[in-house]
Write a structure and sequence with these properties.
This protein has 1 helix and 23 strands. The protein is mostly beta strands.
Length: about 350
């Protein structure tokens, strides 16, 4: 839908398997899998017949194996020239990479990985509960790097759920509350955790924001205007019904908004309404992509392929091609030569790890 006169809505686009994005963002995927109970190998305790193992995006029975063959997920694959921001709303991800870092994260945690000069990582989805369902829901967002930062050193950052700033607007006139998780970009007095040093989001002029919003029934909330010059803003409405933006009803969609204008949201439905917001000042640089490599020229893509063939971006230091971290391990992150970092015990709540 094109711009609507006299409103801050510039256009709307439907939500498909991959959500539409705008510079400086490259990619946004919403995975929402209703996995069954797990088996002894932490894979699904269910037949895999009829699935294209290694390339299963079928959502058969409400879930996919993706590129996994025993445990669902994404075995080792390379990246260069951009960043991945992974927001896990439900379930767990087991991470391993060519830097020698390992992690298990989820339940509201965010992983921010600067691929930069090149990294190989795996993202597997262990199904720890052997007696009940193992729901998994996540966003994976690709944020581009400016040309000057395409070859920065790779960097791995974990934002534990309990450390992520959250804003709660209690609402008025009997309406519900609004809950905002501030992954990037200040919201009022809520300052975000520091993004990786090489990130476009680390530059004040970039005006990058990544927020998730949940409006209870009856809630009203005003998105403040962005402050950056030339900032672009996309609001994804993906759960709930009866929502209006600037007084106009909207269905589930990606809605481009005029970033410089405040926008009134209202949840007139009977269930929570949920949104993802992505905004930033465009890099306005050439984008040349070849699969997991995103550079500025074809020559740089050729160099990335040659470098990966020659070096493997550091090789794969793990004995398993798709590591998972065991049935009784809680959330953690560990880098080479350091002790594991874990979130506060009250924030764990794993079905089999307590």
């Amino acid at each position: 839908m094109p711009a609507v006169a006299d409103t801050p809505i510039l256009n709307t686009q439907p939500l498909g398997p991959l959500w539409p994005t705008m510079d400086p963002f490259l990619f946004c995927a919403h995975h929402d899998d209703a996995y069954p109970p797990g088996n002894a190998e932490l894979g699904p305790d269910a037949p895999l017949d009829g699935r294209q193992i290694g390339q299963d995006f079928s959502r058969r029975d409400g879930w996919s194996m993706y590129h996994g063959d025993v445990v669902p997920g994404f075995p080792p694959h390379p990246h260069r020239g951009f960043e991945t921001v992974t927001i896990v709303r439900k379930g767990l991800i087991d991470h391993a990479d060519s830097l020698g870092a390992a992690a298990r994260f989820g339940q509201g945690d965010v992983q921010w990985l600067t691929a930069g000069d090149g990294v190989v990582h795996s993202e597997m989805f262990p199904l720890l509960d052997r007696t009940g369902p193992n729901p998994l829901e996540l966003f994976q967002i690709w944020l581009n790097l400016p040309a000057r930062s395409k070859r920065v050193d790779p960097h791995f950052t974990m934002f534990w759920s309990g450390d992520i700033p959250r804003v709660v607007d209690p609402g008025t006139d009997g309406g519900g509350a609004t809950h905002v998780a501030v992954v990037a970009g200040r919201l009022g007095e809520a300052a975000p955790l520091a993004p990786p040093p090489g990130s476009w989001a680390a530059q004040a002029e970039a005006d990058v924001a990544i927020w998730t919003l949940r409006l209870e029934p009856g809630a009203r909330f005003t998105l403040p205007a962005a402050t950056g010059e030339g900032t672009r803003r996309m609001l994804y409405f993906f759960a709930g019904s009866g929502v209006t933006l600037a007084g106009r009803p909207v269905d589930h969609a990606a809605v481009e908004l005029r970033a410089g204008e405040a926008v009134a949201l209202h949840n007139g439905g009977t269930a929570d309404a949920e949104f993802l917001l992505l905004q930033g000042r465009p890099l306005a640089e050439p984008v040349v992509q070849y699969g997991p490599f995103v550079m500025n020229t074809q020559q740089e893509i050729a160099e990335a392929l040659a470098d990966y063939r020659r070096t493997g971006f550091g090789g794969w230091p793990w004995g398993d091609a798709a590591p998972v971290h065991g049935p009784t391990v809680g959330r953690f992150v560990q880098r080479p030569g350091t002790a594991p970092d874990v979130p506060a015990p009250v924030d764990v709540g794993l079905p089999s790890a307590g």
